[in-house]
Design a protein that fits this description.
This protein is mainly alpha-helical and 126 residues long. It has 6 helices and no strands. The longest helix has 18 residues. GO terms for molecular function: DNA-binding transcription factor activity; sequence-specific DNA binding.
Amino acid sequence: MLGANACWPSEPPARLKRLEALLHTRLAGARTDPLVAAALERLQAGDGRLRIEALCAESGLGATRFIERFRAQTGLTPKRFARLLRFNRALAALAGAHPPSLAELALATGHADQRTSPTSSDGLPA
């Protein structure tokens, strides 16, 4: 997509516009899997707290097949996507006017303690 022969503008804003145009062109023909779209909506509505087993059951697929379809559409497993949602929620809370303590943040984002919270660097997606 970003071939070596491509003529790229030298200024970052122009480069971004060019990249956006290429991505829009490439994605124009992409089809969205309705099962994955529904799962994404449910995960986002629940701030990433929905159990993946529940998503699999709702889809009518086995866990392996559901995860394969989800990954094919998003590039992530449902579990990793949910973790990113929780991490983004934690970042937003920390950036707010009155950031919570890490213990409060861990509980608010569905974790038992600070160690397992999304602010911990262990296991964050690359």
